């Protein structure tokens, strides 16, 4: 992976901003929703394989061990670091250059639109009139459904389908177009969270953070133009293989840590890191793809429980104040789950046991895990948030460094 320094010199992402537009498990793994979360409402109730026929999607085997918890809005990141200037390459353009076939359209957008959703009125209509061409911070050019050739369906989410599409105008970027039915957003009372998720994601530019290029709406729907994650869901890979090799795990964790350093410096805490929220880019690189639980900007610390139980840190389980260190804990859980195939504090017999194990940091390592990997996990899964290993030290940890592909530069000093 390129260092942040080198990324700054790379060309910016898709030239679809106004500025440039002128020039142109193991077998038991099951996908778990993070209930109560916009992002998860947005994305995790209805996976492509969820077996829905009419847009009312079945929840895929929610485990009693991954529980919904309360939701409130703000919390704070008490980092004072300046915003990183890293910029991603241009995945949409790369996809176009690679001559990717967008596949065959099944007419699903129209069929679905006939059967699904209603017009919304009043305040909700205003709230959901989302259009990136008039965004104050980073306006894009005007988009509409007519701007795209529609290709194959990529999946179904809680609020609508996702399609692989290509812009009709040169250079014919490939993106994933995600539809969200406004009336369903209103019914689920997540208008504000949706806006927040979109606002957060549109300002993020990092190679391991799924890019949101733009958005527009029509009477019934909101459309999100997302970076196309060519290799799909990481979760599916984990389900297929049960667990990953140490090398593969270390490489993903390296990318995760880099993305989290970036997010924390932008004052964004993710708060819902888990395999279900990760996608893979066309080169197999990891992409954080879901910001439903993330919280932006400093504010008052909140005692909010959110996210997936297995990934919750002690301070959240105990309803204490929390900060960006929750993501360090989740990174430790993720590292363990990648290698072992299940999260470290999972107790399938009782949710309370899981809570207890988290609060006691009841961590047991199977003999299969290397000492170096154990060292990293045990430095992240620390009860006291401030004693968890800093992310800048994660990326120079011997286990991470050992597995990093040759030629990759990491320059923690510049981070
Ligand atoms: P979501 O509503 O985000 O859960 O999306 C539903 C499904 O569409 C996911 O489970 C993915 O398989 C697929 N999908 C969503 N976003 C993308 C993307 N950016 N690139 C490729 N596939 C995606």
TrEMBL record:
<keyword id="KW-0808">Transferase</keyword>
<keyword id="KW-0547">Nucleotide-binding</keyword>
<keyword id="KW-0067">ATP-binding</keyword>
<dbReference type="InterPro" id="IPR011009">
    <property type="entry name" value="Kinase-like_dom_sf"/>
</dbReference>
<dbReference type="Pfam" id="PF00069">
    <property type="entry name" value="Pkinase"/>
</dbReference>
<keyword id="KW-0723">Serine/threonine-protein kinase</keyword>
<feature type="compositionally biased region" description="Low complexity">
    <location>
        <begin position="69"/>
        <end position="85"/>
    </location>
</feature>
<feature type="domain" description="Protein kinase">
    <location>
        <begin position="148"/>
        <end position="400"/>
    </location>
</feature>
<feature type="region of interest" description="Disordered">
    <location>
        <begin position="17"/>
        <end position="41"/>
    </location>
</feature>
<feature type="region of interest" description="Disordered">
    <location>
        <begin position="53"/>
        <end position="98"/>
    </location>
</feature>
<dbReference type="InterPro" id="IPR030616">
    <property type="entry name" value="Aur-like"/>
</dbReference>
<keyword id="KW-0418">Kinase</keyword>
<protein>
    <recommendedName>
        <fullName>Aurora kinase</fullName>
        <ecNumber>2.7.11.1</ecNumber>
    </recommendedName>
</protein>
<dbReference type="InterPro" id="IPR008271">
    <property type="entry name" value="Ser/Thr_kinase_AS"/>
</dbReference>
<dbReference type="InterPro" id="IPR017441">
    <property type="entry name" value="Protein_kinase_ATP_BS"/>
</dbReference>
<comment type="similarity">
    <text>Belongs to the protein kinase superfamily. Ser/Thr protein kinase family. Aurora subfamily.</text>
</comment>
<feature type="binding site">
    <location>
        <position position="178"/>
    </location>
    <ligand>
        <name>ATP</name>
    </ligand>
</feature>
<dbReference type="InterPro" id="IPR000719">
    <property type="entry name" value="Prot_kinase_dom"/>
</dbReference>
């Amino acid at each position: 992976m390129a260092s942040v320094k080198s990324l700054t010199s790379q060309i910016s992402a898709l030239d679809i901003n106004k500025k440039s537009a002128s020039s142109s498990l193991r077998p038991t793994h099951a996908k778990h929703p993070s209930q109560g979360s916009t992002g998860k409402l947005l994305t995790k109730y209805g996976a492509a394989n969820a077996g829905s026929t009419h847009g009312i999607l079945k929840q895929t085997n929610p485990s009693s061990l991954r529980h919904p918890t309360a939701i409130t809005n703000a919390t704070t990141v008490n980092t004072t670091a300046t915003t990183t200037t890293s910029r991603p390459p241009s995945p949409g353009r790369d996809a176009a250059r690679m001559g990717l076939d967008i596949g065959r359209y099944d007419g699903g957008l129209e069929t679905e639109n006939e059967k699904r959703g209603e017009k919304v009125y009043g305040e909700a209509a205003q709230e959901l009139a989302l259009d990136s061409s008039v965004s104050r911070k980073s306006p894009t050019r005007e988009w509409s459904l007519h701007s795209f050739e529609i290709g194959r369906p990529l999946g179904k989410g809680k609020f609508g389908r996702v399609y692989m599409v290509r812009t009709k105008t040169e250079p014919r970027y490939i993106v994933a177009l995600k539809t969200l039915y406004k009336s369903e957003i209103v019914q689920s009372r997540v208008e504000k969270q949706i806006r927040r998720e979109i606002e957060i994601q549109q300002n993020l530019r990092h190679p391991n953070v799924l890019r949101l290029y733009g958005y527009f709406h029509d009477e019934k729907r909101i459309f999100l133009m997302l970076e196309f994650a060519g290799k799909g869901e990481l979760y599916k890979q984990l389900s297929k293989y049960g667990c990953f090799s140490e090398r593969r795990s270390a490489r993903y964790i390296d990318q995760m840590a880099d993305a989290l350093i970036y997010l924390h410096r932008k004052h964004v805490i993710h708060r819902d890191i888990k395999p279900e929220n990760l996608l893979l880019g066309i080169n197999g690189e990891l992409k954080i793809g879901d910001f439903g639980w993330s919280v932006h900007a400093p504010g008052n610390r909140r005692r909010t429980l959110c996210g997936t139980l297995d990934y919750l840190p002690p301070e959240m389980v105990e309803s204490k104040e929390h900060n960006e260190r929750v993501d360090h804990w989740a990174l430790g859980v993720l590292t363990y789950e990648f290698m072992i195939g299940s999260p470290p504090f999972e107790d399938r017999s009782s949710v309370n046991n899981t809570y207890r194990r988290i609060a006691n940091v009841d961590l047991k390592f199977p003999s299969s895990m290397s000492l170096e990997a154990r060292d990293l996990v045990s430095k992240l899964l620390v009860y006291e948030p401030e004693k968890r290993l800093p992310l800048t030290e994660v990326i120079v940890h011997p286990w991470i460094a050992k597995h990093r592909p040759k030629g990759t530069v990491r320059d923690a000093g510049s981070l």
